[in-house]
Amino acid sequence: MCLAGNELEATEQLQFRDFCRLLQSVYHFEYHKSLELLKDSYAPLNPDRDTRKIGIFKSGESDTFVDELESLLNSANYERLSSDELDKAFEESSLFAVRLHVDFDAFEDLLIFTRGESTKKETIKKFGVLKREVEFSNFDRVVLYVRYKSENNGKTWKHKPGSTLLKMFQNVPKADIEMLFPESRVGMRLVDKLMIGVPALVGAGAVFTTQLGTSLILLGTLIGFWIGLHSDEVELNEATLVALFAGLGALGSYIWKQFVNFKSRKLSFLQALTENLYFRNLDNNAGVFHRLIDDAEEEECKEAFLGYYFLLTRPELKTVKELDDAVEQWFTERWDSVVDFEVDDALDKLFELGLLKGSEDNLQAVGLAEACRMLDHRWDEYFDFHQPASLNMPG
Fold it and tell me: Which of 156, 160, 190, 211 suits a disulfide with 250, CB 3.0-4.6 Å?
């Protein structure tokens, strides 16, 4: 994308490609250390491990892992969802006609991070027939970390006490973010209860007036005779018994039918929930931070590429604000995209690598040849092995 503007000569374009490859290699090596730290701290927590857990791990491993995970998510440009934002998301109407209740008392730690919030439109069915277009907020990526409490106090949970879950999802509507949580229970909205309850009450009235009328009168007469309310003996013949059992059978059949209707609707909700989770799940447990490491490398490199390229090709950009505005305007005009360029992160990386001179009010990029030499030297230093003097061989 940078080279598409032809602001560099042919030889400089080749040098810029070398610069990018060297910078990618540097960040790949740096993040390899982060990956090893995450693997070590997550090893005793990993529910998918295929190795034995031995007693050399410290009790604070989960805290170390959470700190490393948060740092990695920030590098990959994820934002933590606050409690207030989560409450607002729970209050919004679901797009998938599913109402969920989450048992937050089961969790000791809960982290939820998002990236790429946008507004989308979708046509959904209302009452199963009517269609309407709705506008909603959508997250491109969502990462969820949960650690259960060590004691369940007699409650039944889907996972063992003290266990951890780490999951990544894609294309999650903000209003349906609760479907990502474990320990969620499917409930019914008021409209769903009315759709089941109102026909059930109407049908029950019809059953009582048409099929149970005779049976109820007969039962009332029998009960009145047994408790002494009247002295007229009730004769139970074959016809009255058939009528009585027919009415009771109709009542039992109606109750069973309503129960089946309720279970069928609940199963349809569970199916909608399962299908949505199936197509939105990207990765689980250790696979999540392997993917996040790759995302973080990409984000760090892209920010550094853009910051260096713009300062190299447009020396008139001297201040932080000028650089930030130029990059964001380039995305808007050239690529039809609205991007919030994290200019501070880009400059911090470039200054740390020695690729910038001057100050934040007088930014200057070093030349391409010098930048490539500096990155190559940094790479060589990663593997600088010094042989002990006692092992040096003569000649």
Answer: 211
Each residue's pLDDT tens digit, 344-384: 999 999 999 999 988 888 999 999 999 999 999 999 888 76
> Do 194 and 170 belong to one domain?
no
Q: How many domains does the chain have?
A: 3
CA atoms within 13 A on the CB side of 303: 23
Residue 216 lies in a domain: yes
Q: Is residue 131 part of a domain?
A: yes
Whether residues 183 and 90 fall in one domain: yes
CA neighbor of 149 nearest in space, from 107, 182, 181 = 107
- The lowest-confidence range among 48-52, 67-71, 233-237 is 233-237
With H, G, I as helix, E, B as strand and everything else as coil, classify residue 170. strand
Q: Taking the model in full, what pTM does it have?
A: 0.69
Tell me how long the chain is.
395
- HSE (side-chain half, CA atoms, 13 Å) at 1: 12
Q: Give pLDDT tens digits for 184-222.
A: 776 655 555 555 555 656 555 655 565 555 555 555 566
390 is a domain residue: no
Of the candidates 323, 306, 394, 393, the residue with the CA atom closest to the CA atom of residue 358: 323
* 348 assigned to some structural domain: yes
Q: Supply the range of the domain harboring residue 210.
A: 190-270
Helical H segments across 213-237, by residue range = 213-226
Query: Per the structure block, which two tokens stand in for 286?
Result: 């250790």
- Tell me, yes or no, whether 253 and 345 share the same domain: no
